[in-house]
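Go through the following before class.
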Amino acid sequence: MLSVLGKDVKREVGHAAQLNNIQRAKAVSDIVRTTLGPRAMLKMILDPMGGIVMTNDGNSILREIDVTHPAAKHMIELSRAQDEEVGDGTTSVIILAGEMLQMAQKYVEQNVHPIKIVQGFMHALDNAVDVMTKIAIPLDLDDKGAMVQVIGSCLGTKVMGRMDTLMSGLAIDAIRTVTIVDKTTGQKQIDFKRYAKVEKIPGGEFSECKVLKGVMLNKDVVHPRMKRKLINPRVILLDCPLEYKKGENAINVELKDPNNFDLLLKLEEEYVRGLCEDIAKFKPDVVFTEKGLSDIAAHYLMKFGISAFRRCRKTDNNRIARATGATIVHRTDELQESDVGTGCGLLEVRSIAGDWFVFVEECAAPTACSILLRGPSKDLLNELERNLLDAMNVARNLHMDPRVLLGGGATELAVAAALVERSRDVAGVQQWVAQAAAQALEAVPRALAANCGANVLKLLTELRARHARGESVWGVNGTAGCVADIAELGIREPYAVKLQTVKTAIEACCMLLRIDDVVSGVTSKKEQSGSAPPPEEDGA
């Protein structure tokens, strides 16, 4: 065959490419297999900056790993996509995708056409979605105890699982705070990544963690004589500097008369005083600005009895606006009475662990909040934040789709039993592949049993027998390592997470199986920047 590729380009074609992709994907799957379940092991990873990451969160582990093979990179992208879409199930999706590919490997080795395998997997996916939709259980969002139980099932597999009640309460309160319902369409908008900020302060006890009915910022007043505690303050938010105007570039001013220098300073002071007077007309108690605030402006604001905070982040200003009802204004001469926020009940500057924080609390109807986390060390606080974000994702999913499925591998086993039953209506290769997909779904209960030291073969045999008899509520007790009634244990997971996990795993498996040519022609920067090799000398 005539080659048109460069000499440094590597190429894999046909079954060799498919089998190599399967092997690389299985290698990624094996990395996180032991991090599933309440008895999961931790991974310690040294990041490129020298920091240490200790976690059992699938996405947090895989994003720190540097891989070169495109199939392995694709598997890591699955975890990231799962985290962005539903925020949970990042380990399960990798384990399931790796198991699906392993089941497909024997058919690839038997020279079954990949399209036939893909058709069988997609048929299995349609049946799995249908089965999960039928066995889904509706959840009452007004029942906080039921929501805490579902979120606790998610947190039970995390490092901070022993604090599941506290974390669940924080997540529910934060999501309920930031939820906005469109009055015309009835759709819910839940953007907790922008409007529910986590503030981590080392020190104190875990019991001091709480969701503020408002916002906190790591800021102090700009003048020591300004008030640090205000009750029912009037709040103004600005996106403009409270100082004299500066040129975009370097500006030189030539003064012929030395007395004009004093006039120049006086004009600057009058300009700043005019800005402060524009603000003082509306009798605010506190001003937040995203830009600079000069010493002269601080002096005048202090004279007017106004407390001021400067150089706030844009995101913080947006949260204060949603908490207090204020509107961010871009010019002081455009201020109106409707722009002043009056929804704050208490504004107070407090010192915590040697830093000053301003608390905008006791707001009337806040749609933004801050979550204060306290703990003994930064590493624990980082893990606590990761677990809390997972809990908030679960709470968000429940608000968007209030349906749940049983955990502990019970749903996977129920779907597997249904796939085997329905595969009998299909003929040929698709029947074998559908049964292989059903067997792959058992990877989740198998991993749960293996990670808690149970007898995997005996446990799975008993579970298969129970599900064959129609007892679809039985699964693996990941803590005790035995067969248990999952409905009685109260282990439930969001329907959206389970559905997304199965969809993502099977569709990714089908995509990798349809690849029959892998071309690696990327040269390293070092080789590109290096000098060309010396020419070979002719032999004598």
Residues 405 and 493 are 5 Å apart (CA to CA). DSSP finds 19 helices and 22 strands in the chain. The first helix runs from residue 15 to 32. The longest strand covers residues 196-202.
